[in-house]
Amino acid sequence: MKHFLDLKNTSIGYSEPLISDINTSLQLGEVCLLMGNNGIGKTTLIKSILGQNKLLKGEISINGKSNQKLNSNEIASQIAIVFSKAEIPDNYTVTDLISLGKYIHYPYYFKLNETDKQEISDIITKLNLSEYQNKKLTELSDGNLQKVFIGRALAQNSPFIILDEPTTHLDEENKLMILSLLRNLAKSENKLILFSSHDWRLAKEFSDKIWWIKDKKLIRGISEEVILSNPELITPKILDFNQTFHPPEIDAPKLEKEMMFSFLQKNFSQNLRKFKLTFKNDFWELNLDNFYDNCHSFQQIKQSLQTLINKGNSN
């Protein structure tokens, strides 16, 4: 199948490369999740694809043409962009903002024809925004506002949509709604979707591919294969920030161990090395010498430990 986006021997950055020797491609109908820490090059990569940043090396082609040879109108006809921090125009309604997507094809003074208006109406229906179509943007929830900006991108009729942190500031329900919407758009409209997200544990469920920026390289592939090949992505990480805290022995699976360490670290500054906590599926067994206590909640563990510590201090 023909690749719509191709990066060949590409290095991006400024005076020094942020990401080097990228060789990857994406095709229409795919959803790709872009991951990486802040300042590591995600936005620079997006700008490089859009032709806004000069490449340090290599080539990026869009639909078979080098993006460095495309003008801004040609880029806009191929790529629609949705930013997480887009400004909200004063007094604009839902219909007004979605209609703006059409003006990449016309001068600003041009009036939309009936075909354009019907397409905009169809987009509003598709996004379940019909009841809000005449509402001002300032009156919308964060989730519906994000759908309106996606609607403007759809109105461009571009085959490729890039979204920079589209689920930022959204609650869990709206995150799921937006991610489901993006996947459905890719599959039903045969669009290529590239989106960045910090909430990658949730976002990975909706992506076909992952691009992960790490150590100035782009790790890429089928989402599940990337994760299986890089277990640090899903392995819980115990963060030791309390220098006066000395943990007990914790016998538990990785996730439960991480959560118990986190809870105890926040609640105790004492030395707990003489204690042992064992996870037993539906309870925790607290052990001190020959004393055993079965605890069915973190709060109960806290109370039992505190009682034993106080008892020991009074002896």
TrEMBL record:
PROSITE patterns: ABC_TRANSPORTER_2 (PS50893). Keywords: ATP-binding, Nucleotide-binding, Transport. Pfam families: ABC_tran. Residues 2-240 form the ABC transporter domain. It comes from the Bacteria. InterPro entries: AAA+_ATPase, ABC_transporter-like_ATP-bd, Metal_Ion_Import_ABC, P-loop_NTPase. Transmembrane segments: none annotated. GO terms for molecular function: ATP binding; ATP hydrolysis activity. SMART domains: AAA (SM00382). Gene3D superfamilies: P-loop containing nucleotide triphosphate hydrolases. This is Iron complex transport system ATP-binding protein.
